[in-house]
Amino acid sequence: MELTGGMTQDTRCGHLSQIRDVGPRTPEGCEECLQSGDRWVHLRLCLECGHVGCCDESKNRHATRHFHATHHPIIQSLEPGERWRWCYLDETFV
Ligand SMILES: [Zn+2]
Ligand SMILES: [Zn+2]
Ligand SMILES: [Zn+2]
After folding, report:
1. CATH number of 20-93
2. How far is the centre of ligand 2, averaged over its atoms, from the C-alpha of 33 (Å)?
3. What are the pLDDT digits (tens) for 13-24?
């Protein structure tokens, strides 16, 4: 698997058109974890609706759960200094 660092657009993903101009709905943390009082490791932003969820290293994996519930395919890291995007459907960086 080749990693291009996210700077070049990967044409294997046909879902980039689903990206909207959204900002994080809950910039302070994972939407569901904030409600339940849980903690998270890293944050991921859904680029289609602005949902903020926790990563797969977090026990609740709300970003992945959000994809399964909504089929919004593309997330972006919300971690400072990280700018990569991931497509769940293609399982590739985009
Ligand atoms: Zn895709
Ligand atoms: Zn969470
Ligand atoms: Zn979403």
Report:
1. 3.30.40.10
2. 4
3. 999 999 999 999
